[in-house]
Write a structure and sequence with these properties.
The complex is a heterodimer of chains A (about 130) and B (about 325).
Chain A: H1 24-38, H2 45-122
Helix pairs in contact in A: 1-2
Chain B: E1 10-13, H1 23-35, E2 41-45, E3 52-55, E4 58-62, E5 88-91, H2 96-105, E6 111-113, E7 125-127, E8 165-169, H3 183-191, E9 197-201, E10 204-209, E11 212-218, H4 222-230, E12 232-237, H5 246-253, E13 258-261, H6 265-274, E14 275-278, H7 281-290, H8 294-312, H9 315-327
Parallel strand pairs in B: 1-2, 1-5, 2-4, 5-6, 6-7, 8-9, 8-12, 12-13, 13-14
Antiparallel strand pairs in B: 3-4, 9-10, 10-11
Helix pairs in contact in B: 1-9, 5-8, 6-8
Classes of the chains: A mainly alpha (about 130), B alpha/beta (about 325).
């Protein structure tokens, strides 16, 4: 009886990558977007007034760019969310594959060994298969 | 060139003396060393006649040789000092050539063999008993002195970051450790998916887990091997040595039970209660599974240490037993 085949790669589940959405880069993007809207010097009346004027002027002059930036931030967010979901699914699949390799591999090996044992009993003391 | 005759001594007729990597050479040297504690020992090896080769405590002498390291024909043998007629002869490998030399030059002597003698019954020769229960009608159980370094038990092998693995001594010769593994290892790593299986092969240790090769580390010294043995859960010796199964004894002395094939010298050690034997792959898998139990492993480990240390761990006792065995026929 042929010995079991070996795997070319280990089936151990790899360490899952850290989530993208809570990563530094996307968090920084959100902070910057929020800062642009809130204004940095909104503590005083004069500061708030300055921000308001700057904001109105910005909307009048760069309305299209502003919208595009907002859309981009939301798109990056969505892509990151999808990546995280896929990552989680892959990690789960790796665990399932490893469990299958272990459970089925061990059970099939036991069955094959039992068959080998029966065959050996039949032929009374056959030597070890090489 | 037969100049004079020696006083009664021990004549060791050895074809393996210079093959230091073999187990029979290890045993022959140990017997000669032990015998030298109680009398003169003359070591004869297949060398050109008249050659004297210093080797540690002995001068290895030649009486002639034939191609492939075989003994010379009786009429071609030329002794520097012809053996005393009452000398005790020890033949490591009692080939036809060695037996012929003994018959020709050891008239009144009796010889002991280290490996089994498959020769004729006319030759007065019995086998030295190094392993209990293996050589019926031979000398008393001599045991052997099989040294180990107890420090191996303190620190694991530096190349492995884990212990409690199944250590397998391969049955393949001259094969570098690589995929695919030997058949028994393929079965073991498939049956025990989460277990590390460390295979010693070609001077290297290959680590298998979950049917995949995880890495290879060097086994450069005997100490490396002892460390690997000492920190294993079990030692599976697929091809134990054919004289004393030295690796099995070392494993037992280091406290690791053995799993060995039936009808081998190693099986004689296992049958003393220090391990289990197998005759087929299912029995091998069952044996390793049996030793996965901590209590069973500890029980066999204790028995193994007691057995191996008492018979193979005391150099003075070995010297005494050899002297007694060889003196019996003087």
């Amino acid at each position: 009886m042929e010995p079991p085949e070996m795997f070319r790669r280990p089936t151990d589940p790899a360490e899952p990558p850290p989530p993208l959405r809570s990563g530094d880069r996307i968090t920084a993007l959100h902070h910057e977007w929020a800062r642009m809207h809130s204004g940095a010097d909104a503590a005083t009346v004069a500061g708030r007034l300055r921000n308001e004027v700057r904001s109105v002027a910005s909307r009048i002059t760069n309305r299209a760019d502003h919208r595009l930036l907002g859309d981009l931030v939301r798109a990056v967010d969505a892509v990151a969310e999808r990546c995280d979901a896929l990552s989680e699914r892959t990690a789960n699949l790796e665990i399932i594959v490893d469990d299958l390799a272990r459970i089925l591999g061990e059970e099939v090996t036991q069955l094959r060994a039992a068959i080998e044992g029966r065959a050996a009993e039949g032929s009374a003391g056959s030597p070890l298969p090489q | 060139m037969t100049e004079g005759v020696t006083t009664p001594d021990v004549v060791v007729l050895s074809t393996s003396w210079r093959k230091r990597e073999t187990e029979v050479s290890f045993v022959t040297r140990a017997v000669a060393g032990a015998a030298s504690r109680s009398g003169a020992v003359t070591v004869i090896a297949p060398l050109p006649s008249g050659a004297v080769e210093p080797d540690g405590a002995f001068d290895v002498m030649g009486i002639g040789e034939r191609p492939r390291g075989e003994w010379p024909a009786v009429r071609e043998a030329q002794w520097i000092r012809r053996p005393h007629p009452e000398s005790t002869w020890v033949l490591d490998e009692p080939s036809e050539g060695a037996r012929a030399l003994f018959r020709a030059f050891g008239d009144q002597s009796t010889a002991y063999s280290i490996k089994p003698d498959a020769g004729d019954v006319l030759t007065r020769m019995s086998q030295l008993a190094f392993v209990p229960g293996l050589t019926a009608g031979s000398s008393e159980d001599l045991g052997m002195y099989v040294p180990i370094n107890p420090l191996a038990m303190r620190h694991r092998h530096a190349g492995l970051g884990f212990t409690g693995y199944v250590l397998v001594l391969t049955d393949r010769t001259c094969t570098p450790a690589a995929a695919p593994p030997t058949a028994a290892v393929a079965w073991l790593t498939s049956r025990f998916h989460r277990h590390d299986v460390v295979v010693i092969e070609g001077g290297r240790a290959a680590v298998w887990r979950g049917r995949a090769l995880r890495g290879i580390v060097a086994v450069d010294t005997r100490m490396d091997l002892w460390r690997l043995m000492a920190h294993a859960q079990v030692t599976v010796d697929l091809a134990p040595g054919d004289v004393i199964a030295r690796d099995c004894i070392e494993s037992l002395r280091l406290g690791t039970p053995i799993v060995v094939p039936d009808a081998t010298v190693g099986a004689a050690h296992a049958h003393t209660g220090a391990g289990v034997t197998f005759s087929s792959i299912p029995a091998l898998l069952d044996g390793v599974e049996q030793l996965g139990s901590q209590s069973e492993r500890e029980r066999l480990s204790r028995q193994g240490i007691h057995y191996a240390d008492s018979l193979y761990g005391d150099p003075s006792a070995f010297v005494t037993r050899v002297a007694r065995a060889l003196n019996q026929i003087r």
